[in-house]
Design a protein that fits this description.
Two copies of one chain form a homodimer. The first copy, chain A, has 299 residues and is an alpha/beta fold. The first copy, chain A, has helices at residues 16-29, 46-54, 67-71, 83-92, 111-115, 117-120, 164-176, 187-210, 224-229, 236-245, 247-270, 273-296, and strands at 8-12, 38-43, 60-63, 76-79, 102-105, 126-128, 130-133, 153-156, 181-184. In chain A, helix 8 packs across helix 11. Chains A and B meet through helix 8, helix 9, helix 10, helix 11 and helix 12 of A and helix 8, helix 9, helix 10, helix 11 and helix 12 of B.
Chain lengths: 299, 299
């Protein structure tokens, strides 16, 4: 069986994530002495392709029109596109993937990908859905970095049709890129949990900035507001798509959060100091337990 | 006029903030060659006093019972207590401060301090209200550090009775401790702004943790949830007091935030992608402007 360091990797979409994955593969997987692996990249933006070539991240680059010829040569293809574009790409280029190859995606919502599985299924190509839980508030290839994955989580949602060997190989790759915890689950649980840890947080950060009375408020900041709203430097088209693609789960978390907030608000209004103190003590205890969940995994 | 490096500093309350201020004074103000300045400290916790002595942060320490003899020797007294305790202390020990001394506090809510000004006013002691916008989710002297103030904001609320010379001296001290921006304002504006940048953020972070369905949610985290809830490792008694002491302002900000959140929620429910995108683009633009407010001040 071929080793990861001898694979030909194909990255579809050299944005922040595709670029960062390419750099992490170059730095960590293709740095083994004597390895024969290569990285190919495709994007609609020729400036990103040029930069990836000049930086020696991609051995060969392909325009969007030529992507089929790239797919035919790749042992592993990373689709690094927005959720709907991911599904469209998999459908349109279904017949171009190399027989025996592994394909994965990075879509932050999985329901729409799983709903279309039959439309791009091929018995000789192993599509393993995944979600690298890392990113940046900065966009595009120019802001990509091979280091953003260290100590982060990776969620893998293997299909019944996946070969166990390929899933293990994929998890080895992911560990090599710097991710320290690989969680295996299904699309339903993924979308439910991610609606809380990721989408709800972006909704809250955005609403907090939206509710600020002026933009010079940071003159009165001590770090809390800045920490809570860094992710409000948001990629609007991407997050609009993510919010809507996971609407039902996200709405239920927003409502649960609003209820918790309303309870604390009412205790403050009524001046119930003992109840507020208990609410906050419980929160502190829970947040410490959550931090231990991190620690257990080497963070 | 005496130089800051020759002052006798008295710190009332050697917790996280008092300890950090003591260390920052030792490291930055009393490190001038030949200076004669000293730091005295008082606390109800004798272990904190012992540690501050052994670490050579305090030249002399005083039990709470002996604090009056300390106050009589200090050129500058930092009251580092909770808001109500600050007011109580200033009233009870009004007659013990050294004539000509400067006194400041660190209370995160100022209305209750200003409401009591007449109860502890002395024409020969300059009380300059202030609020260092820095802290930590870790409590107590053992977690204090002289470095936590670097690049942070300090809010000063001079009184009409303050000598301008003393206010400038205080601002020089604060700059020496590492704070890069000193904002001068009044108690009303302070409490209104701080209810947003600080208290509302702690309310949101706490409600977000409270609404989590289980404590292993961080296995699905990518950093956003962790960043939004670090401040939920909250000092429950202190923040209960802060929330209630600034209730009116805090409630108005919670309501405005809830309204913004509800608007985004409804747009998501109705699937209005164009409105969501505009909401998020406006948020991104505003957050970038807020970051520039930081940058202007050397952050």
């Amino acid at each position: 069986m071929k080793k990861l360091s001898d694979f030909v990797y194909g990255i579809v979409g050299l944005g922040l994530m595709g670029g960062s994955l390419g750099k992490a593969i170059r730095e960590n997987i293709l740095s083994v002495p004597g390895c024969t692996g290569k990285i190919y990249g495709s994007d609609i933006n020729s400036a990103s392709l040029d930069l990836a070539s000049r930086q020696h991240i991609c051995d060969r680059v392909f325009s969007a029109e030529d992507v089929d010829s790239m797919l035919g040569e790749c042992d592993f293809v990373y689709i690094c596109l927005y959720p709907h574009a991911t599904v469209d790409f998999l459908k349109q280029h279904r017949d171009s993937f190399k027989s025996g190859s592994i394909v994965s995606d990075i879509s932050g919502v999985k329901a729409l990908v799983f709903d279309s599985l039959n439309d791009f299924y091929r018995p000789d190509v192993d599509f393993i859905p995944g979600h690298p839980m890392a990113g940046s508030e900065k966009e595009g290839y120019a802001n990509s970095s091979g280091g953003i994955f260290r100590n982060h989580n990776y969620i893998v949602m293997p299909l019944e049709t996946n070969s166990r060997e390929n899933v293990e190989l994929f998890k080895t790759l992911v560990g090599g890129l710097g991710f320290t915890r690989v969680v295996e689950t299904d699309a339903k649980i993924h979308d439910h949990k991610i609606a809380f840890t990721s989408q709800l947080c972006h909704v809250i950060a955005s609403s907090l900035v939206d509710s600020a009375e002026d933009d010079s408020i940071t003159a009165f900041g001590g770090g809390s507001f800045e920490d809570l709203t860094r992710i409000a430097l948001i990629n609007a088209p991407l997050w609009t798509e993510l919010f809507l693609a996971n609407k039902r789960e996200l709405l239920s978390h927003i409502d649960k959060f609003t209820e918790s907030l309303g309870r604390l608000r009412d205790e403050i209004e009524k001046g119930e100091d003992e109840k507020i103190r208990l609410y906050l003590e419980n929160v502190r205890t829970r947040r410490m337990a959550m931090a231990r969940t991190d620690l257990k995994c080497g963070k």
